[in-house]
Amino acid sequence: MSTIHPRRRRAFALVGAFAAATLVLGACTNGSDDGDTSSAIGKSNTDNDKSGKKVVIGFSAPAADHGWMGSITKSAVAQAKKYDDIELKVAEGTNDVNLQISQVETFINDKVDAIVLLPFDGAAMTAVARKAMDAGIVVINVDREFDSPFAARTTVLGDNYGMGVSAGTYVCDQAKGDKNKVVAEIAGIDSLPLTQDRSKGFADALKKCGLKVNNRVAAEFTVESGEKAASNLLQAAPKIDYLWNHDDDQGVGVLAAIKNANRDEFVMIGGAGSANVMRDIKADNTVLKATVIYPSTQAADGIKLARLLVQGKSMSDLAEIEVPREVKLSAPVVTKDNVDTYLPSAFES
């Protein structure tokens, strides 16, 4: 899961997280019959998809050191291949900020038409992104925000606070008014704003139905840390009714710890929406009954938006004649009832 998010704007009310409609950008509209992750990256079947002016797009993202990040790049590449008028230049994934700055500098020197950038560190990448914008290059900022609004034409974001709200709302719905339910939480890295946002959303949603987090530990978005954190939590909490784990990659370790502890008295909710978690939900043979989506299609949406902007087009499903400055994707809950809808676009942990 994404690991460094600078300041997030929480300019929407709690109720908005329950009711906000998702902007459908076409990246998840069409399924396919070949079953791989990229198959869910489709076209919207509008005039926007007709071949037009050639668009050269530079793409840079952090190293694919976990499933979610790997899917970010894979989905972006798959999206670009859907269009014969896109030439995509993909920089090697890196967690070295200086190297990523150099990659963007190369795109600027190459005079690409647009840059889709998921920065390793949004603050550190702000200056070079603004340099690209000043050079007349359309910049699409993905997932980790820059420090300046002048550094990107459009920003595509997941909803970390909304993830917490969705998870907490699911728990409240399942609890059916019983205020004695014991709720546990396995967070990601506590020092990160994204983790803080998720935990705040979770606590705020639980508060609405009279519940709170009774036991909480933090992990590090890895399988190993998930197993260790879960083991500690299970030892400290002899009874749990609901457990929310922030990240499905670390959730592999969490489930291993649960199995080793021979615990099955609670319902577990995941986070991010990995394919292996969705398969477990569909099989309905573990404590894992739901997961909250954090879309790994954000960069694919960035590719589509970059193409529209360079070609002077707008989003066909909006009355607005300009592509929005910001698109925040929703954080739906996936259960056995709707898993088939989301499984085609899920990433592998």
Q: Would you give an account of this structure?
A:
The chain is an alpha/beta fold and 349 residues long. The chain has 2 domains: 22-157 and 296-328, 3-Layer(aba) Sandwich (Rossmann fold); 160-293, Response regulator (Rossmann fold), CATH 3.40.50. The chain has helices at residues 14-19, 67-80, 97-109, 122-134, 160-175, 193-208, 223-236, 248-260, 275-283, 298-310, 339-342; strands at 55-60, 86-90, 114-117, 138-142, 154-157, 183-187, 213-218, 242-245, 267-272, 288-293, 326-328, 333-334. The protein has a 6-stranded parallel beta sheet with strand order 2-1-3-4-5-11, with helices on both faces. Strands 7-6-8-9-10-12 form a 6-stranded mixed beta sheet, with helices on both faces. Helix 2 (67-80) packs parallel to helix 10 (298-310) and helix 3 (97-109) runs parallel beside helix 4 (122-134). The longest helix is centred in the middle third of the chain and has 16 residues, at 160-175. It is elongated. The N and C termini lie close together (10 Å). The relative contact order is 0.17. InterPro entries: Peripla_BP_I (IPR028082), SBP_2_dom (IPR025997). It comes from Aeromicrobium terrae. It is found in: Cell envelope. GO terms for molecular function: carbohydrate binding.
